[in-house]
């Protein structure tokens, strides 16, 4: 949101507490996607699920065949991509509120296909159909978050979206660990039942939410935008909703002069190309730095040689550590910028992931536990840096007219990486039996991400959307973003520039 009035972080949270509340509430939809993802990936290691859906092996054990594991995970991610492709234009046309409510009702209705599935084909169909709206949730949550609060607290509400993702993982891992005691069909049926807990109550709550003032202003509904703005902040002597809407209009005027456009193709033209690159690579890095290992931690632990109960306990512990890292990131964001946190996180995570792979050459139990400890430390750095900060960067870097579509492109590439990981992980961890050595590709991706971040990632902390439009319009180098002082002459240069 524009920042014509300078408030401290503490003051902003107090004055804009209603905007923070609605942002936090809408972000809960992301928990469902996270819960579903960790649930499916972890159930592969649960004996009752293996017996119900798997194939009997010569050794008397059941296992979900690698092609079906790949198909289930890929199908889920393909559904999310479809949801993104459909969702971004729908959000641009109908707004966040109506799209989110419709998507939540859709999810609730089709979750029944998952619960009543009796075989892998039915399970796959259920996940594909039910997950389509979740792709829209993944782009709506961060986009809505940065549009309903001022820039002083923009990073906190955007990174909370990632924290909801972690919370979904923690809940899923905790439910699975507890349900193992049943050692029956309820080991997986009970987690399936809990899928119904969020959609309908959240849809009812969002009925009372205000629409994004940016969406309303973009549609020319200025009075409604001012009314929505009033619902986002408490009365304050220096804040006038009409003035804030006027400032939004000024930012739109600058983007019109920059010929920003509003289509997917426009994301790759002129200065938008650079902004799209930053959004895409930033939001894809969280999938690359833990490639194969991160989202299959429980299955990874079992294939590395740990007992099933210990593997589930460590999986839960990892996500709790990532949650603690997410809380830590809020304090780090107050002191450091996005670029600093990303580069520092990658710097410390790369040797940790290398050690996870290297320790696989030690065949003792001590080596297995050392691997687990390294991965747990890695999850803390991930949770405090690489997990939450890309959500902030991807949501704030696009032009306002292209926010939904840029986020859609970024998230689609993220899911494409997850699809490749989901296809390869059963082969890495099962067919080829690489065990801990599966961490080496993630180590390589971490190094590449560190190099890109140092060279290409600008610092956007403290910049409002108008300032970002000007900085990108002037083609300011990444390492000069934080120190560059914008003048009135710069605004004139941008106004008369031709992309």
Topology readout:
Blueprint: H1 9-15, H2 17-27, H3 29-43, H4 47-53, E1 55-56, E2 62-63, H5 66-94, H6 96-115, H7 120-147, H8 154-179, H9 186-193, H10 199-206, H11 213-218, H12 222-230, H13 241-257, H14 271-288, H15 297-303, H16 308-335, H17 338-358, H18 365-386, H19 389-396, H20 403-431, H21 440-456, H22 465-473, H23 488-495
Helix pairs in contact: 2-7, 2-8, 3-7, 3-8, 5-6, 5-7, 5-20, 6-7, 6-10, 7-8, 7-19, 7-20, 8-9, 8-16, 8-19, 12-13, 13-22, 14-19, 14-20, 14-21, 15-16, 16-18, 17-18, 17-21
Subcellular location: Membrane
Pfam family, one: Sugar_tr
Keywords: Membrane, Transmembrane, Transmembrane helix
Give the topology string: H per helix, E per strand.
HHHHEEHHHHHHHHHHHHHHHHHHH
For the sheet with most strands, the description reads: 2 strands, antiparallel
The gross shape turns out to be globular
- In CATH terms, what is the architecture? Up-down Bundle
Spatial order of the strands in the main sheet?
A: 1-2
Radius of gyration: 23 Å
Query: Which structural class best describes the helix and strand composition?
Result: mainly alpha
The CATH topology: Growth Hormone, Chain: A
For CATH, the homologous superfamily is named as: MFS general substrate transporter like domains
Helix content: over 70%
Summarize the structure.
Keywords: Membrane, Transmembrane, Transmembrane helix. It contains 23 helices and two strands. With 499 residues, it is mostly helical.
Features:
499 residues, mainly alpha, Growth Hormone, Chain: A, globular, transmembrane
């Amino acid at each position: 949101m524009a920042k014509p009035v300078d408030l401290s972080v503490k003051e902003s949270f107090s004055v804009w507490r209603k905007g923070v509340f609605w942002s936090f509430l809408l972000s809960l939809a992301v928990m469902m996607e996270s819960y579903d993802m960790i649930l499916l990936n972890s159930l592969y290691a649960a004996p009752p699920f293996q017996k119900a859906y798997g194939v009997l092996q010569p050794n008397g054990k059941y296992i979900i065949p690698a092609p079906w594991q790949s198909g289930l995970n890929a199908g889920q991610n393909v559904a999310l991509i479809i949801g993104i492709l459909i969702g971004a234009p729908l959000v641009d046309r109908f707004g966040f509120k109506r799209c989110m409510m419709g998507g939540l009702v859709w999810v609730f209705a089709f979750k029944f296909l998952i619960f009543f599935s009796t075989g892998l084909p039915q399970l796959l169909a259920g996940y594909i159909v039910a997950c389509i709206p979740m792709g829209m949730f993944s782009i709506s949550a961060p986009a809505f978050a940065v549009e309903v609060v001022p820039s002083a607290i923009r990073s906190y509400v955007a990174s909370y979206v990632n924290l909801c993702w972690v919370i979904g993982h923690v809940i899923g891992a905790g439910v699975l660990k507890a349900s193992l005691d049943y050692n029956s069909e309820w080991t997986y049926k009970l987690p399936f039942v809990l899928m119904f807990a969020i959609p309908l109550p959240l849809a009812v709550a969002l009925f009372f939410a205000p629409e994004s003032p940016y969406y309303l202003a973009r549609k020319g509904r200025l009075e409604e935008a001012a009314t929505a703005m009033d619902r986002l902040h408490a009365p304050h002597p220096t804040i006038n909703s009409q003035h804030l809407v006027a400032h939004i209009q000024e930012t739109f005027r600058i983007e019109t002069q920059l010929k920003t456009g509003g289509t997917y193709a426009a994301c790759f033209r002129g200065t938008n190309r650079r902004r799209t690159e930053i959004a895409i690579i930033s939001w894809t890095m969280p999938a690359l730095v833990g490639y194969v290992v991160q989202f299959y931690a429980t299955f990874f632990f079992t294939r590395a040689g740990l007992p099933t109960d210990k593997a589930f306990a460590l999986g839960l512990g990892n996500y709790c550590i990532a949650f603690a890292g997410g809380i830590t990131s809020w304090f780090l964001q107050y002191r450091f910028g996005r670029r600093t946190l990303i580069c520092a996180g990658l710097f410390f995570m790369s040797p940790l992931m290398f050690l996870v792979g290297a320790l696989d050459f030690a065949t003792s139990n001590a080596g297995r536990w050392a691997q687990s400890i390294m991965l747990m430390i890695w999850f803390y750095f991930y949770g405090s840096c690489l997990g939450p900060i890309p959500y902030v960067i991807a949501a704030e870097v696009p032009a306002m007219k292209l926010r939904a579509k840029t986020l859609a492109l970024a998230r689609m590439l993220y899911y494409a990486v997850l699809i490749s990981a989901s296809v390869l992980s059963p082969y890495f961890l099962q067919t080829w039996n690489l065990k801990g050595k599966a961490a080496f590709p993630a180590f390589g991706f971490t190094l590449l991400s560190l190099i890109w971040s140092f060279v290409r990632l600008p610092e956007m902390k403290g910049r409002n959307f108008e300032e970002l439009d000007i900085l990108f319009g002037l083609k300011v180098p990444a390492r000069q973003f934080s120190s560059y002082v914008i003048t009135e002459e710069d605004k004139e240069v941008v106004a008369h520039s031709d992309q």
